[in-house]
Task: inverse folding
């Protein structure tokens, strides 16, 4: 997966799949992001031009929804659950450990694009707390030592 | 277009179907305060200062009159204790962002709003959207837009467009009920004219 679009053919293909209609803007943005994990400025400019949507509106929408990222994301998405159940079972210490091991604060991505760290408010599996989720895989009942093992298993 | 009859502040009035309460009231000589309304722009419903109470079918509630369309038999009140209290609160919240805005201070005097009621967070922007909508609807330039949301929402000029268009236009400047827009524009211009 590239984090930059060498040529905009991929973006044009996605736009064509949605019929180039302005009302498909959000879907186009989501699909582009699904392929390259973030939304680079040149892709946004192309989308605005092809869908005939003002760039100001594209800017409004991409900054409004938390699902969109205007900065590159790492290969692995780490979500640390800070929900109530996880919180009382030590989520704060788990987060501290993850921050220390990755060198990232929540919302950040390292320069090697290995990890992106986010906190979430509840992953919906409170019985497994404290929970961290990496690339959609849930790691439950993590201790500080296991958090380290889990993170080290990702390249 | 059929006509509907309704009552505003005890006065029987007629209005075209699809008209808003605000324009109907103003046509009947009843004044309702507004901040985000502009004659050349679509109603926005952003500032909420034009709240009125409507009564229909035995219940009453507060609605935003600039976007609420008239209906047959509607009973509207544009001024009472509840409305005044609501407008006072709205003004106090807006004043927290723009304490020295002349139109806000004028309304604050009328409704007894205290500009220091809430901790001041002087962003100078009250999100009325006048500049954004004027640029989009009247000029068709879209040089300025909203970014982010909630407490972080703000206006932002697009440097690519602003650098080309804004210097010869600046028609949105006098629309601003605070002084924020000018400052924001100057800021972006400083960034782009390097």
Result:
């Amino acid at each position: 997966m590239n984090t930059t679009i060498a040529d905009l053919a991929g973006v044009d293909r996605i736009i064509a799949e949605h019929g180039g209609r302005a009302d498909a803007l959000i879907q186009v943005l989501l699909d582009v992001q699904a392929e390259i994990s973030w939304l680079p400025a040149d892709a946004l400019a192309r989308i605005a031009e092809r869908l005939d949507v003002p760039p100001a509106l594209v800017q409004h929408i991409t900054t409004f929804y938390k699902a969109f990222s205007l900065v590159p994301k790492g290969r692995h998405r780490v979500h640390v659950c800070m929900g109530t159940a996880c919180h009382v079972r030590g989520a704060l210490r788990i987060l501290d450990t993850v921050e220390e091991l990755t060198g990232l604060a929540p919302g950040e991505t390292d320069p090697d694009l290995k990890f992106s760290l986010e906190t979430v408010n509840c992953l919906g599996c409170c019985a497994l707390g404290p929970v961290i989720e990496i690339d959609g895989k849930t790691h439950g009942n993590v201790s500080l030592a296991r958090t380290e093992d889990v993170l080290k298993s990702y390249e | 277009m059929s006509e509907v009859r309704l009552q505003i502040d005890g006065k029987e009035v007629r209005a075209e179907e699809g008209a808003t309460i605000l324009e109907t009231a103003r046509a009947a000589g009843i004044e309702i305060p507004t901040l985000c309304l502009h004659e050349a722009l679509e109603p926005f419903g952003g500032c909420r200062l034009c709240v009125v109470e409507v009564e229909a079918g035995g219940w009453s509630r507060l609605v935003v009159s600039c976007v609420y369309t008239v209906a047959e038999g509607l009973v509207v009140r544009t001024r009472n204790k509840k409305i005044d209290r609501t407008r006072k609160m709205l003004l106090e919240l807006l004043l927290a962002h723009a304490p020295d805005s002349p139109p806000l201070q004028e309304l604050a005097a009328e409704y007894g709003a205290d500009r220091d009621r809430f901790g001041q967070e002087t962003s100078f922007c009250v999100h009325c959207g006048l500049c954004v909508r004027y640029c989009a609807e009247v000029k068709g330039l879209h040089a300025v837009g909203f970014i982010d949301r909630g407490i972080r929402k703000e206006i932002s000029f697009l440097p690519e467009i602003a650098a080309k268009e804004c210097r010869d236009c600046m028609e949105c400047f006098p629309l601003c009920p605070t002084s924020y827009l000018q400052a924001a524009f100057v800021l972006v211009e400083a960034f782009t004219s390097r």
Summary: The first strand of chain A starts at residue 76 and ends at 81. The helical segments of chain A are 9-17, 25-36, 41-51, 55-64, 84-88, 91-102, 144-152. Chain A has two domains: 9-64, 76-152.
